[in-house]
Amino acid sequence: MSNSIIYWFRQDLRLEDNPALLHAAQSGKSVIPIFIFDPDERSIGMAASWWRKQSLSKLDASLKKIGASLSFYEGRPLEVLENLTRFYSADEIVWNRQYDGYCISRDKEIKQIFSDKGIQCSSFNASLLFEPWLIKNKSGSFFKVFTPFWRHCLSEYAPESPFPRPTEVRGHPDKDPFQIQLPKALLSDDADLTSDEWTPGEAGAYQQFEKFIEEGLAIYAEFRDFPDRPATSRLSPYLRWGEIGPRQIWSKIQFVKSHESFSEKTISKFLAEIGWREFSYNLIFHVPEMVTQNLQPSFNDFPWEENEKALQQWKDGNTGYPLVDAGMRELNRTGYMHNRVRMITASFLIKHLMIDWRAGEKYFWDRLLDACPANNITGWQWVAGSGADAAPFFRIFNPIIQGEKFDPKGAYTKRFIPELAHFEQKYLFSPWKAKSDSVKLDFQEGEYPDPIVEHEYARNRALDAFQQIRR
């Protein structure tokens, strides 16, 4: 009789609140913890690769402290697991669920094949507060608008408490010959990802969460849209890789709410962001094709423009609109971008340049530390107006006004655009006006570009295009 169980880590790189790991640890069997680099899963970019490598390394160190170690494999998971079950004579495989279409299909196939062989496969929820198939509207379908979705969740369900951390995981004494070394992460020469801003791993997630509670939560509702203020949680990369889970966040916030004097408004605003993540996963679970297709079919006829030069200028942060460019340069340099600025840069690509949202989504996926398979898609379709509960297409951000409103002192913009570091504040978000006013320019480094498109012209062009698909 076998006494081995395989635990497959995926996007749950933590020991705390990990139901599949806890099940394996309590099974009484030798546990083989593994991570598989699946070539058929959507490839991640350099920033996410860097993060994942750091997190996996720290996870392995944590497992070794309680009796096991993490083994790495590369290949199609079914083949890897078949080899491992033979080598270890394992009779059980466990994992925590993923919710995108590819992973669901892959996992169903694996469960069926191993079930036919008499090997039990069990999956658990470590990623969401609420399973997508549980949340239904009055007609028995899934919600397509966030507010009623979140209201329903809060009124009908109570999130589970976090699962305890296993005190011991009894590793297997044998090591199979198939495992590989942890691959090197891809990094560009100028990537500033190893700075003190980020500490990947489970411990880093807790530290960041505590820091947010101490320094950011009280001002979250008022200042979360200001990129120069420390008012956001910056937990998104940790959530992306499962170094902290939503149940842990929910539980901690409820404790804080009952013991400290934070306003109901700021607590609700913050938890609504966790709710938006739930909503995003709910959508891709029910409509898996939305990862590549417009959720609203009317946008299939939208007259997108092919403009590789403009797309590259947007990617490089050389559009001539300082807040847009600051956001893109932050992304390229650090693998991160403030959420308000994400909306502004996305709106500019889609509505000022008339470039398909899928080009922007791909670039963000390749560059973001927190490139989430649900949030990234849902966010881009929200800005485009083609998704569920989307902002209407005719809501077109004015990048000048957005800069003046949300970066009023210019601290964020000047940080990422050194050419404008000593530029007169009056003209910071429309520097071309200084030229027309014959104001002496005070550039530090190089020449900042003129706008690649005029705002009013771009706005009217976008609105005309939108009218075409409404006819």
From TrEMBL:
Pfam families: DNA_photolyase, FAD_binding_7
Enzyme Commission number(s): 4.1.99.3
Name this polypeptide is given: Deoxyribodipyrimidine photo-lyase
Organism: PS1 clade bacterium
Co-factor requirement: (6R)-5,10-methylene-5,6,7,8-tetrahydrofolate; FAD
GO molecular function, one term: deoxyribodipyrimidine photo-lyase activity
Keywords: Chromophore, FAD, Flavoprotein, Lyase
Reaction catalyzed: cyclobutadipyrimidine (in DNA) = 2 pyrimidine residues (in DNA)
Cofactor note: Binds 1 FAD per subunit.
GO biological process: photoreactive repair; response to light stimulus
Swiss-Prot/TrEMBL site (Electron transfer via tryptophanyl radical) positions: W304, W357, W380
